[in-house]
Every structure is written in C-alpha cells, then in structure tokens.
Write a structure and sequence with these properties.
By secondary structure, this protein is α/β, with parallel strands linked by helices. It is 31% helix and 20% strand. The chain has helices spanning 15-22, 46-55, 73-79, 95-102, 148-162, 179-185, 194-197, 202-210; strands spanning 2-5, 28-34, 59-65, 83-87, 106-111, 129-133, 167-171, 189-192. GO terms for molecular function: D-ribulose-phosphate 3-epimerase activity; metal ion binding.
Length: 216
C-alpha cells in the first residue's frame, strides 16, 4: 500500500519542512493543480512543482484539475512531474494521455464521482494510474463518498481480466477510518491531505493508513 500525501493541505509557509517530514514514510507526493474553471478553486501551478522537484527525489504525481490540460502537459513534464494525471471529463480522446507518454512521463486518468468507469475503459490499457475521486474535486477536508467503492472494485476486476498494469488511486475523504474499506475494495494508492498534515501525528497517520506497513 502506498500513501500519497497531498500537499494541498500542507503548510505552504513551511512546505519544505512538511515534505521532509513525510518523506520518511512514503516515496510519492500528490500535487493538486486547480484552475478555477474545471473546479471552483485555484491552487498551485508549474513554479511550485519546479521548486518541489529541486527539494526532493520523491515521485511527484501532478493531478491536473484544469480545462484544456493538453496545453500544459509539456510544461509540467519539464517542471519535474513524474506522473501527470488528467481528468476524463476534460479530454475528448486519448491524445493527452499519449502526449504525456511522449514526454516520457507516466500517464494517469481521473474520474469524478458522477463519471462511470465505462467512460475510461478504452484508456485503461495505456495508463499507469487511474484516480478515483471520492469527493467532488476542488476543496480539501470533504467526507468520503462510499459510491466510490464499487468503482474501485470494478477497476480491480477489469485490471485482472485484461492484465492491465495501472495502479488504482483514491482521493477524497481518505483517513485512518475510511482507508480500510478503500484498501479492501482494491486501491493501491491512498491520497490523503488533511488526514496527514492536519493530524497531531502525521507520521502515525501514514503508518496507520498503510495497515501492515507493506510498501511505501
């Protein structure tokens, strides 16, 4: 089980310190990029990814919650993102996913709570990550939507039946209470923000969400 701390909930005045703290128990970071159009919020962008890349060797997963992501794939690739995740709701075909791979980056596709898995079935053979949103994207600290669990189970089944290689990630309301059922459904990556950076014991929260401590 991999835990991906979401820096959206980190202390941006002490971002290096927060990243250094979680680096002890995980090897990837989740970076939410919002444009105020696709989602009703604005967050960080390319300069922050560049800065984080200089600071750490951790895997950086850039989650592009933006309209027209194809315009920015090259920039995020050059900034140092290792995985670039685009939303199924923002792409008309698989070209943005191919563009990501053409820049030698790991391609990911994400679906919002109202989007069925069937919408992305044609992409599953060519991506390294499928991100299931278990809240409506845009703001941290929301409650987990249990409707995500059947999607995780469906993705796990499709992966096994077709020998696909993607990881299943879940983002939204992930914490020490909800993580066991998410893992049981078939998730490989738990993305957590406030449950880690808002905790009195961030490292303890990571360890507890890992369960048996297997993996990074």
């Amino acid at each position: 089980m991999k835990i991906a701390p979401s820096i959206l909930s980190a202390d941006f005045a002490n971002l290096g310190k927060d990243i250094g703290m979680v680096e002890q128990h995980t090897d990837l970071l989740h970076i939410d990029v919002m444009d105020g159009h696709f989602v009703p919020n604005i967050s960080i962008g390319i300069p922050v990814v560049e800065s984080i890349r200089k600071f750490t060797e951790m895997r950086l997963d850039a989650h592009l919650m933006i309209e027209n992501p194809e315009k920015y794939i090259e920039a995020f690739a050059l900034a140092g993102a290792d995985t670039i995740i685009v939303h199924a709701e923002t792409i008309k075909d698989g070209k943005p996913l191919q563009d990501i791979k053409d820049h030698n980056k790991r391609a990911g596709v994400s679906i919002n709570p109202e989007t069925p898995v069937s919408e992305i079935e044609s992409y599953l053979g060519g991506v390294g990550q499928v991100l299931v949103m278990s809240v409506n994207p845009g703001f941290g600290g929301q409650s987990f939507m249990p409707e995500a669990l059947p999607k995780i189970e469906e993705l796990k089944k499709l992966r096994k039946e077709n020998d696909f290689q993607f990881e299943i990630a879940v983002d939204g309301g992930v914490n020490t209470e909800t993580s066991p059922k998410i893992v049981e459904a078939g998730a490989d990556i738990l993305i957590a923000g406030s449950a880690i950076f808002g905790s009195d014991d961030p490292l303890g929260a990571i360890i507890k969400m890992k369960g048996d401590g297997d993996g990074n």
